[in-house]
Design a protein that fits this description.
single chain, alpha/beta, 6-stranded mixed beta sheet, 8 helices, 38% helix
Length: 240
Amino acid sequence: MIDVINVTKKYGKFIANDNLNFKVLPGEISILLGPNGAGKSTIIKSIAGLLRFKGNILICGHKNKSLEAKRLLGYIPEMPVLYDMLTIWEHMEFIARAYSLKNWEGKANELFERFELDDKKNKLGNELSKGMQQKVSICCGLLPNPRVLLFDEPLVGLDPHAIKELKLMLQEYKKDGASILLSTHMLDSVSEFWDGTNIMMNGKFMARRTRKEVLGTGEDLEKLFFDITESKKESKEEVK
């Protein structure tokens, strides 16, 4: 599970994340929903151990920057960064060596087949389109079969088949008890499988909902999102 406790991240005087607290339980898909600049990527990078912050973050009870936590964590960034002179199969081998995986080839082949990469194993990283690079990035993140998954805008740039396959995989990992945190600014892209939603604005959580709550009240989550984000924009304009 993911446990974020009183996390604040500043860039100089700018507060990107303001005292955030939340959990993602095993078998749960939690969504960070908000416009660009809301702070979604910052908290995901903090959880992944890529940024310094004030507060505490635990991955399955381990401090997020510990080796124990990193072995359990899979992170798929918004912008894929591949090694230009490694083939995509060599990327998988690199991950397998980093995690000391054994008998990983079958899993790698399965991922490549599902994302239609099996005929591109010998392509170099710099020969791939943005969408293809994103697929490789997802495969690298999933190869160690992590118990905690972080996705930052994962559907951007993917073709329809890859989007369908990734959504199926997310539900498979959820069923297997993984904790999944996913950021997006497109509510309709994740509407069918989220368990909890946190609407972010200006580094804070402005509203939280569970699927059970929304189904029970009939609340329009999309309307809530626009009510929050548009009203905040108007308030800022009035101040100016």
